[in-house]
Amino acid sequence: MTDTTAVLDEEGYLLNLQDWTPELAHQLAQDVDIALTEAHWEIIYILRDFYQEYEVSPAMRPLVKAVSKKLGAEKGRSIYLMTLFPGSPPKLAAKIAGLPKPANCL
């Protein structure tokens, strides 16, 4: 269960982005049966940097591009992101990173 001091919306996204902490990220990940590894943290911090720069959570294509730019072509692939964040990597990673739901993700 998530930290009681953090307020989430009905889909589990953090309402106040300033409430995010690495500890909360662990809790949010546990809620969806993900044990965060160094590989997950690389993506989470890229997402948070992306959000800080563009004030939007990236959908799959911009996320893949950002990861590829920072970590190289091998990790900048949707298949790789799917292994870390199954289902919808942009939505799941944004949720764990304490960011809003990507606008064009259903």
Question: Radius of gyration, Cα only, in angstroms?
Answer: 13 Å
Highest CATH level, the class: Mainly Alpha
> Any guess at the CATH architecture?
Orthogonal Bundle
Mean pLDDT: 93
CATH superfamily membership, which one?
DsrC protein, C-terminal domain
**Domain count:** 1
Distance between the termini: 24 Å
Overall shape: it is: globular
**CATH topology label:** Arc Repressor Mutant, subunit A
Structural class: mainly alpha
* Low-confidence segments: none
Largest sheet, in brief, is: none
Count of discrete alpha- or pi-helical segments spanning 4 or more residues = 5
Oligomer: single chain
Secondary-structure element order, N to C: HHHHH
Quantity of strands, as a count: 0
Helix-residue proportion: 40-55%
β-strand percent reads under 5%
GO molecular function: sulfur carrier activity; transferase activity
EC number: 2.8.1.-
Protein name: Sulfurtransferase
Keywords: Cytoplasm, Transferase
Write out key terms for the chains shown:
Arc Repressor Mutant, subunit A; 106 residues; mainly alpha; 0% strand; DsrC-like_N; 5 helices; cytoplasm
Describe, in plain words, how this protein is organized in 3D.
It is an enzyme of class 2 (transferase). This is Sulfurtransferase. The chain has 106 residues and is mainly alpha-helical. The chain has a single domain (10-97), classed as DsrC protein, C-terminal domain (Arc Repressor Mutant, subunit A, Orthogonal Bundle), CATH 1.10.10. The protein is built from five helices and no strands. The longest helix has 17 residues, at 38-54.
